[in-house]
């Protein structure tokens, strides 16, 4: 029988097969890890563990560290004011020094959110295994890599051995047929997928996004989708590599070159699910039927098309009604309210989900010649310094600042409350990030997850909107 993409990559990395355990049950397989990404939040105890055991890092050359979660996006070269944040960053700096690991600190041209820098540098490659002590490591699956988020004790294991014991997974195909309509993005697709299968729907599975709509997506769009696989509870998300993948990678600093490039591409072409492979589960999505999505609740599965209204718990069965009531209370939303009438205080364009150059270009195309509504604060935070520099070369920073938005330095920023960029209690935010949990963007803050296009249009109108809700820019000067 044929094998799926995920199974092929897995099989190529098994250094010791698990099989039956002596006392019953099964032992996990031991997998080789090709790339280990490290950030300041989940690594300190792992390095402490190594020190206590007198161990070194087995493959410093396959380990790369960056500073992202605690980064203040204003004045990045000043000492970090918050003590916990400063300690985490200082600790990472000491650890990489002691263990000989390459770090991209604040102020470095290559610094950025951990899931931005792997792809940018060409470190994330098809058919590799990638891990990081961070749940959104699934992002790297867009290249046909098997990429897992791991816990801190696993970080220590990988640092020490460059291997990781892993339990077998199930496979789920997400078949996205047809073509996306203009203005509908991969962010809308993934919000629709999670709304359909639920935040636990992917538990135990590696998802493979397939179909015509996926083939037409850019690498950045694929990364957005794979990034949020974890929000469906999945262990990982993948897309089979193709010409789009190879074109993205060619010439990047760590991509193979010359003859090595040719042989790598030949091997990468084999990395696709065999025609006769069978997935444990298949989910169908009709791309042509989708419109921009927005979440109304407090988990990423609580999303609906922007054109709809806030759902009514009275129309649901008991379990859903209880969860919905609780979410609506936190979000301060009335059932039946058109989502387009919901006003926001803040718009956040950023995070490892949607802060790549194409996301910034898309938002800028909406904001050019327009202005952020008086009632709204908009933060534009490139996911990496490379994206920041590229955007500045293209003049996108000017488009945003002339529209009244704030242009910041790279980091996780308002995606989560670990740095100065936070919502005040009760503030409502349209955010291009991936999580809308209670307090995620600051205590008492309320989050609506949206695409960059919806974020930009919302900033202009002040209520949840898509670009088609905006009047033509020329009218503003008439
Ligand atoms: C801080 C880190 C462990 C966390 C994660 O694992 O995802 C963060 O990146 C997040 O997005 O919530
Ligand atoms: S941008 Fe957000 S989701 Fe991504 S790693 Fe940072 S905190 Fe996690």
TrEMBL record:
This enzyme catalyses: (2R,3S)-3-isopropylmalate = (2S)-2-isopropylmalate
The answer, when asked if Amino-acid biosynthesis is one of the entry's keywords, is: yes
Q: Which GO terms describe its biological process?
A: L-leucine biosynthetic process
According to UniProt, this protein's pathway is: Amino-acid biosynthesis; L-leucine biosynthesis; L-leucine from 3-methyl-2-oxobutanoate: step 2/4
PROSITE patterns in the record, alphabetically?
A: ACONITASE_1, ACONITASE_2
What are the names of the required cofactors? [4Fe-4S] cluster
**In which domain of life is the source organism classified?**
Bacteria
Q: Which residues bind [4Fe-4S] cluster?
A: 352, 412, 415
Q: Any note on cofactor binding?
A: Binds 1 [4Fe-4S] cluster per subunit.
**Record-annotated Aconitase/3-isopropylmalate dehydratase large subunit alpha/beta/alpha domain positions:** 7-462
Q: Which UniProt keywords apply?
A: 4Fe-4S, Amino-acid biosynthesis, Branched-chain amino acid biosynthesis, Iron, Iron-sulfur, Leucine biosynthesis, Lyase, Metal-binding
**Entry's InterPro entries?**
3-IsopropMal_deHydase_lsu, Acnase/IPM_dHydase_lsu_aba_1/3, Acoase/IPM_deHydtase_lsu_aba, Aconitase_4Fe-4S_BS, Aconitase_4Fe-4S_dom, IPM_dehydratase_rel_enz, IPMI_cat
Enzyme Commission number(s) from the entry = 4.2.1.33
Q: What does this protein do?
A: Catalyzes the isomerization between 2-isopropylmalate and 3-isopropylmalate, via the formation of 2-isopropylmaleate.
Q: Which family does it belong to?
A: Belongs to the aconitase/IPM isomerase family. LeuC type 1 subfamily.
On subunit structure and binding partners, the annotation says: Heterodimer of LeuC and LeuD.
Q: What is this protein called?
A: 3-isopropylmalate dehydratase large subunit
């Amino acid at each position: 029988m044929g094998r799926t993409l995920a199974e092929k990559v897995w099989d190529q990395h098994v250094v010791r097969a698990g099989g039956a355990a002596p006392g019953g049950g099964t032992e996990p397989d031991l997998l080789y890890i090709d790339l280990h990404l490290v950030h300041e939040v989940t690594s300190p105890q792992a390095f402490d563990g190594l020190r206590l055991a007198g161990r070194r890092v087995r493959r410093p050359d396959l380990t790369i560290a960056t500073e992202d979660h605690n980064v203040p996006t204003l004045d990045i070269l000043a000492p970090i004011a918050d003590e916990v944040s400063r300690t985490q960053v200082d600790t990472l700096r000491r650890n990489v020094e002691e263990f000989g690991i390459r770090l991209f600190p604040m102020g470095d041209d290559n610094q950025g959110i951990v899931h931005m820098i792997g792809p940018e540098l060409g470190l994330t490659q098809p058919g590799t295994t990638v891990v990081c002590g961070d749940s959104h490591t699934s992002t790297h699956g867009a290249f046909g890599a098997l990429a897992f988020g791991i816990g801190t004790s696993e970080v220590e294991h990988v640092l020490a051995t460059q291997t990781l014991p892993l339990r077998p997974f199930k496979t789920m195909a997400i078949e996205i047929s047809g073509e996306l309509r203009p203005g509908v993005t991969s962010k809308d697709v993934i919000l629709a997928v999670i709304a359909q299968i639920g935040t636990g729907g992917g538990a135990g599975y590696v998802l493979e996004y397939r179909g015509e709509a996926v083939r037409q997506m850019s690498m950045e769009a694929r990364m957005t989708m794979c990034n949020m696989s974890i929000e469906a509870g999945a262990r990982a998300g993948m897309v089979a590599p193709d010409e789009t993948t190879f074109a993205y990678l060619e010439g990047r600093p760590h991509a193979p070159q010359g003859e090595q490039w040719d042989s790598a591409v030949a091997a990468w072409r084999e990395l696709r699910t065999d025609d006769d492979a069978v997935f444990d589960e298949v989910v169908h999505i009709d791309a042509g039927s989708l419109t921009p999505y927005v979440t109304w609740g407090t988990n990423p599965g609580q999303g609906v098309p922007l054109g709809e209204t806030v759902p009514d718990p009275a129309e649901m069965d008991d379990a859903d009604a209880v969860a919905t009531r609780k979410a609506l209370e936190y979000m301060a939303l009335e059932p039946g309210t058109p989502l387009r009438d919901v006003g926001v205080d803040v718009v956040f364009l950023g995070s490892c989900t949607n802060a790549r150059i194409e996301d910034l270009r898309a938002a800028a195309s909406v904001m050019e010649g327009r202005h952020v509504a008086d009632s709204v604060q908009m933060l534009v935070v490139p996911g990496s310094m490379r994206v920041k520099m590229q955007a500045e070369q293209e003049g996108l920073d000017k488009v945003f600042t002339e529209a009244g938005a704030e242009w910041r330095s790279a980091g996780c920023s308002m995606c989560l409350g670990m740095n100065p960029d936070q919502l005040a209690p009760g503030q409502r935010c349209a955010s291009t990030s991936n999580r809308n949990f209670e307090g995620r963007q600051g205590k008492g803050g309320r989050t609506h997850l949206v695409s960059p296009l919806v974020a930009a249009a919302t900033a202009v109108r002040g209520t949840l909107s898509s670009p088609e809700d905006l009047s033509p820019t020329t009218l503003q000067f008439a």
